[in-house]
Amino acid sequence: MRKVAMKELMNKVDFRLIHSLRRVCRSMRYFIDQHKPTIDIAKLCITIHPEHACFLYSSSGKRMETVNYWNTNFGCLVTTNRKRKKIPNMNCFQTFMNDLELIIRHMRCVTEELRVNVHSSSDDFFDLFKKILESRKSQLKVNQFSIFAKDQDQIVSILSSLYPAFLKIIRIFYHVGGPLETKKLETLGQWKGAEELDINDTHAITGNINNFTHFSCSKFRIQSISASDLNVLKEAFLKSACFEYCFITYKHLNNAHEIPEFFGLPNFVDPNNITVQRWSFKYPNSCKDNLLIVVRPNSQNIHFSRTEEKINPNFGFE
């Protein structure tokens, strides 16, 4: 009877209470680990600093909770809202990873968003987190994945362990000086199945444009792009029933003079800025939708979008 009551209790408490109960005694921790209660996490944000780690999480319909882990002279200090707990002879990273493993192990529901922000030169977190993710019986079900990382391998280590069928949005924040290579990312089922892509435009990527055509919404900065690449995008977007927009900034636009060979003469040239050129192409099987393409060489950006607007060659948009 007691065991049944405990199981019922485990099914009704959230991570914060499970986290506290595991620290009551060894037998309680053993019971929780054996029972494997389901932890309902709607959003989970992980942040790693050299001397500090934290995660923010929320369950469905509840406000965000924050758990902080700090290194101190005596060990690790854990703070949750206004509560503080000292854990002697443990550093904050070890304690944090133990608790993170508990969360990931018991997450079975679909999570709206997983965010990972690592402000450390070490790969230790990614190596350990990858092992935690791979130890699960099934891949983690996440709708939106956001990551702040320094290279492609760090991103792949987590992205490859997410359930492709549930992943809809990928956001990448890249913080190292050189270009971000995306060759490995582009081979993943998670990349191929995602609908939206957003890569911060602080640094350029070196990707194959053919592997960016399936996104319905995308924004990224690319090292170089050519007139033929733009035509690849145009043809793919005209065939897509779900395409909405693609915003590209670039460092180099190769063979720009060849664009009219693929697109024809611009439908509209802004008299106030003759470098801005616009084309409009009718969507097949649609009486109102057009693919609008705007090229702005001075700003080094190109914008593709599905629109109902028509271009009047004399006055611009109607």
From TrEMBL:
PANTHER family: DUF38 DOMAIN-CONTAINING PROTEIN-RELATED (PTHR23014:SF1), F-BOX A PROTEIN (PTHR23014)
Entry-linked Pfam families: FTH
Protein name: DUF38 domain-containing protein
Domain DUF38 stretches: 124-266
Matching InterPro entries: DUF38/FTH_CAE_spp
